[in-house]
Design brief:
Chain lengths: ~500, ~150
């Protein structure tokens, strides 16, 4: 067993970062616990609404000068930030494993995906360009310019503590806005590190602020009239009923990326080995705590007789079961481990509740994650192993609701059409995957499926930084998405100039 | 380590160690034997480059597109570990034979990793194949030195 060295030796006392300074909060301190070892690794302040408002004041003050800073100079700050993130790549990745529980491979993947957003945002002199047309009327020209708006708020989720805030922050700052970022209070350490690196990279005081906390900070963000827009990633009830609604009431722009219940569809011609490999990551990667994780596996019998469909279903499920059974669980810094714990014991309770519910509603438990061995001597407070249910029907709670844990539901559909209809019965529309060698089926799936992110022979349809992270139905509330060009539009106002010279 | 639990991280840690050990081994060879000194120093330098290349490829490729729960089947890393210390009384011939064994073993391991990683993004198997080829090419040079000795 090779456990990598922990970068955090003693519990850290986190502070807010406002106007280029680390500032102690008046709020209570809450423990940040490593879910694998159950050790306290930091204490995070639960800041007050007033403290958030102070950060907004600092951001407002920094805004005029930052806005006037040429895009090429703002880009240079981001180039330096990118270099610093690369220099601290391993440390930041290990911190993510300690604060969240994911494996070191997953943390490094998250670091890479986060850094890619900084890389894309360095292209701001090109990305922010408007467009023009001569002679819209005789002797008259018209052009469009993109201007920043002021201060934006960012609310990070617990499942990707490093990457998700970077879907927004680099673009907001690159376009000339200032930000106040609230990391998840469950795993706030990597964001506390990033803001210090941003400061070292030369981003001026007040441009990139971090205020730790919970509901009070979120409420203050939503109520503050100087906050021009909010980016949120989290649950559907909060994202829809609180963030989206309140942003509408206070006239803010909003990106609210929320819950999911994703389906993977396996067609009879799929490459089973590669499909199963992709499914393991998709269903069990990040211990299922991923809005792009697939949860319902639909094995399709298009063109097969009933007996053939049964045999195909059995082949897929047996292979899935064999692969899932061999996943080793433990502390993510042990690099023989393939799956870490859930983020906390409450989340474990929730997942266990869903497993109970599945049994109660008549699904057949083929692999029981409640009884899983852990590599190493660690408390099982937050661990749940890969779990598989068969005989799952669409009306069951486990098939409808987002479990956000390592639980896979096996289902059957007679045709691709039926599989797509099954997906459409679900209120969410975040992602869906199809595994097939047939281009016609793949196109049909891509064309008809009402989900924002489609994977074709890809288990996790995670858009790269230069594409928007999409989402539909109950998985997204807003108009423009995070990442890429859409985020440039989100963080800027389009101003149109029509000119004529006498 | 069990056969079914070699994660990408474990493989990379081991590859880094192999290149570090190789570099240390050839530096010792260069200090001990004037004959072939330049070649050994070149190998040592090249191992450092190999390490950088492999780590960079991994760190720049890994994302959720690289299957996080992927495991390398049937690879026993212990079989490929080697002792980089050179015995005090080793002759030049013995040292070259040891180097040949190391190169044989390392290139075999890297080829095996490259083959297993075929289902991952192409950059990973590509990087291991490239380094396997480079390590294998050393054997020819070492064999010539052995024949001349």
């Amino acid at each position: 067993m090779a456990v990598l060295e922990e970068p955090i030796k003693e519990p850290l006392e986190l502070k807010n970062f406002i106007d280029g300074e680390l500032v102690s909060s008046k709020g209570e301190l809450r423990d940040v616990v490593n879910p694998a070892t159950a050790r306290v690794i930091a204490r995070v302040p639960i800041s007050t609404g007033e403290e958030f408002d102070q950060a907004v004041e600092a951001a407002k003050e920094a805004y005029p000068e930052w806005r006037r800073t040429p895009p090429v100079a703002r880009a240079r700050c981001l180039f330096r930030l990118k270099e610093m993130l690369e220099e601290h790549f391993e440390e930041l990745s290990r911190i993510q494993t300690m604060e969240h529980g994911k494996t070191i491979d997953e943390s490094r993947g998250e670091s890479r995906r986060g850094i890619e957003n900084v890389e894309v945002a360095t292209g701001i002199p090109s990305l922010m360009m408007g467009y023009n047309l001569e002679d819209i009327a005789s002797g008259m020209d018209e052009y469009l310019i993109r201007q920043p708006l002021g201060v934006f708020g960012i609310i990070g989720p617990f499942n990707f503590p490093f990457m998700v805030p970077l879907w927004f922050a680099p673009y907001a700052v690159a376009t000339g806005n200032c930000i106040v970022l609230k990391p998840s209070s469950e795993d706030p350490i990597s964001q506390a590190k990033i803001v210090e690196l941003a400061d070292e990279a030369g981003i001026p005081p007040g441009v990139w602020n971090v205020v730790h906390g919970g509901r009070d900070v979120v409420s203050a963000m939503l109520d503050n009239r100087d906050v021009k827009g909010v980016c949120f990633v989290g649950s559907t009830p909060v994202g829809r009923d609180v963030v989206y609604r309140r942003c509408g009431e206070t006239g803010k722009r909003v990106i609210s990326q929320t819950g999911a219940k994703n389906f993977a569809v396996v067609m009879p011609d799929a490459d089973i080995d590669r499909t199963i490999t992709a499914c393991m990551t998709s269903f069990y990667g990040n211990t299922g705590q991923r809005c792009l994780a697939n949860a319902n596996l639909v094995i399709v019998g298009e063109g097969l007789s009933k007996t053939e469909h049964e045999a195909f279903y059995k082949r897929v499920v047996d292979a899935f079961l064999a692969a899932a059974s061999s996943i080793r669980m433990g502390y993510g810094l042990d690099d023989t481990v393939q799956m870490g714990p859930l983020r906390d014991s409450g989340k474990k309770e929730t997942v266990l509740g869903y497993i109970e519910k599945g049994i109660e509603e008549g699904a057949a438990l083929r692999l029981d994650g409640r009884k899983t061995a852990i590599v190493g001597d660690y408390p099982d407070t937050c661990f749940v192993g890969p779990t598989i249910f068969e005989d799952v029907t669409l009306d069951m709670t486990i098939a409808r609701e987002e479990i956000f844990g390592p639980v896979a539901m096996m289902m059957k559909a007679g045709s691709l059409n039926e599989a797509i209809e099954m997906i459409h019965t679900n209120p969410f529309g975040n992602a869906a995957s199809i595994f097939t060698g047939n281009g016609k089926w793949a196109r049909e799936f891509q064309y008809r499926t009402e989900c924002g992110n489609i994977g074709i022979n890809v288990g996790i349809a995670a858009p790269m930084a230069f594409f928007p992270f999409s989402g539909m139905k109950d998985s997204f509330f807003g108009s423009l998405h995070g990442q890429g060009l859409e985020s440039i539009r989100f963080f800027t106002e389009s101003k149109v100039v029509i000119q004529r010279w006498f | 380590m069990g056969k079914s639990t070699l994660t990408a991280s474990a493989i990379m840690s081991f590859a880094e160690k192999l290149e570090d050990d190789s570099s240390a081994f050839y530096e010792k060879m260069a200090r001990r034997f004037d004959e072939g000194k330049e070649v050994f120093l070149g190998f040592a330098k090249d191992s450092n480059k190999n390490k950088t290349h492999l780590v960079r490829t991994y760190q720049e490729t890994i994302s959720d597109a690289l299957e996080a729960t992927f495991s390398f089947e049937g690879v026993e890393l212990d079989d490929y570990d080697f002792e980089s210390a050179l015995a005090q009384d080793s002759s030049f011939k013995e040292a070259i034979k040891m180097a040949l064994d190391i190169e044989e073993s390392v290139s075999k391991l890297y080829s095996q990793i490259a083959a297993q990683a075929q289902s991952l993004l192409a950059t990973i198997p590509g990087a291991f194949s490239r380094v396997a080829k480079k390590r294998s090419a050393r054997k020819e040079l070492l064999q010539t030195m052995l024949n001349k000795a």
